[in-house]
Amino acid sequence: MATTQLRIPSDHRFLEPAQVLIERIGRIAGVEEDELTSLSIAVMELVKNGMEHGNGLDPEKRVSIAMEALPGRVVVEVEDEGSWVPAEGIGLEPAEGEALMADRGRGILIARNLARWLDFSLSPEGRTRVTLIWPLS
Amino acid sequence: MKIAEDLFDDIAVIRLSGKVIGGPELVEVKEAFQSQVNHDRRNVLLDLGGVTWMDSSGLGVIVSGHTTISRAGGTMKILNATKKIHELFIITKLITVFETYTDEKEALESFQA
Fold this sequence. Notes:
heterodimer; A: alpha+beta; Heat Shock Protein 90; 3 helices; 5 strands; B: alpha/beta; Transcription Regulator spoIIAA; five-stranded mixed sheet; 4 helices; about 40% helix; globular
């Protein structure tokens, strides 16, 4: 499967269409049927982070999602138009105490736990890029 | 996403269905919780059985509802969390906060205990 790329505006109205497309591409790439929801949850967490933290919910700015099936795995890259990385250690462990009851801040934790591998970096253009690897059974 | 409400004596059952994916519709869920407090209903059972997709945004609004109801002296419990949603509760450790049920009658009776 060639790399499939989606570019969506930073607008909540595009979340559901993007989620549907991610599952369709995942299915074509060979992701197990009962893992498609987990895949789309993990990717959409990253897409929402890109929209909010990278693009400030500016609908003129886009989030790019590239998905490629390689032997034994699907590689997903989510890139926004910002230049940020989460604080070290974010999303490695669930919150404790009062922080457990925060309204926000669980997206990266969920994406890290659902995917087998997740890494934040900057693209050669200096944009935030998150790479997620999803193993195929 | 759809929101429906049922009343059983002093227990409000809020039933979510469809995709809880974020954006302005989550405000409606928050308002549904606040509405219970405004009507002096302090026992809330949140039925997630019809939810086909949810991520951290959905968890956030559930936590917000829990806080709203707790501050009013009430209790919110979870009914029919699907396997995927239950997994999110475990990953985020929210499973330690909420009582969860798979049987509605049992859940309703638990408020009387």
